[in-house]
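Researcher: Structure prediction, please.
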Amino acid sequence: MKKAIILSIIVLFFTSCKPKKNKIATKKSPTTIAPISDKILEKTVIYEANIRQYSKEGSFAAFTKDIPQIKKLGVKIIWVMPIFPISETKRKATGGVFASTLKDEEARKKALGSYYAVSSFTKVNPEFGTLNDFRNLVKTAHSNGIYVILDWVPNHTGWDHEWIKTHPEFYTKGKDGKITYPLKEDGTSIGWDDVADLNYDSKGLRNEMFKDMTYWLENEGIDGFRCDVAGMVPTDFWQELIPKLRKKKAIFMLAEAWEPALLKDNLFDMCYAWDFHHLMNDMAQGKKHVADFNKYIEKTSKQYESNDILMNFVTNHDENSWNGTVKERMGDASEIMTVLTYMVKGMPLIYSGQEYDLDHRLKFFEKDFIGKTKGKTWDLLVKLGALKNNNIALNGGENAASYMRLTTNNKNILVFERIKDKDTLTFIGNFSDKKQKYMLRTLKSNTDYFSQKKIDFSTPKVLNAWEYLVLLR
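Model: Predicted structure follows.
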């Protein structure tokens, strides 16, 4: 990324010297933000914006009004779920059926389809507003010191996409010679029959995808992409594409994938910590324990390079809609697991509504909305965001703070330290549903970040079920 940043500064210098008649320059959304950099990524919280469900209006404008509030959570990157028009052909309704099969007209009208069944990569979904509304979202985010990345869908398109007619060679064909939906390796359906599978053997497809992504970088001022099911797209495409995108400007690239290979050689900046997410669910349900967490840390330290970034999360759009709310999956352990996503190496994610204690599964194919009552989770995320932004002991990325596990006499108590320069942060947590007593004489007196109380560890201590401490020194 560092080379890309230097190059982007040079490009910005020379493009600023061009005459105003340059078309690309006049189309660019105004920006008041510095190029994204490794230094910024060290301290970042990322926010996933579900525009459709974020508000009763379900619009860019309604979300844009709340960006100053989102800033209070320590957010530095907003990932906007797909903003593109959704195909009418094979549009999905609740229950996974095609909207066209519904006899009730009102039910068909409610069926808005999947964000990921894209009919055009260069237009915006009128459901959310206009292109100018989106430009205002980007401008407002930038003026608040927040970067914006678009959710990109490279693996497939909706069945209405113009390429279906103009470039059928861009798509995967079945044995019958017809375009097919995405298939598993054994040739059976994944279940995404509302989309058509793209075939990256086509050089033309690769060129068009680069062209469409470049449009958003150069004309609309976005700062990168979250790439849907990135592991299902050939790695050599990313090796070809991403360096060319980085020549345009400094960008942030997030892969919906876990594969370490996608983080190598200046490809993606961050991928998903899926194993960590599933581990937290299992720990909350008593299926796995502190020892399993320690094994996870050992495994990832070998799998990934020291400057790789993993996205840590207790929820996202898929988990909420299909697998349950945070409370459904994690119960009384919800708070300690949320805190843990900020304490370990990586970047914590906030999903729309999480900050407002979202207590229901958002509909995926229909309009829904989240409440906006600030409660315990809002206060917690504000404090965690400030800590992530300002305490270098939580740095993650190019120059991450170190991680060191400390041992106690209680297998249910997790203790580790993050250290960077002169700053030390110690996390202590009870990962059980019962009160636990422990000894930790190796620690000197420390101040708990949340209570601001000094704690002396020269005597045995007790933590209630799922209780935690975050100590600063």
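Model: The domain at 2-398 is CATH 3.20.20.80 (TIM Barrel).
Researcher: Thanks, that helps.
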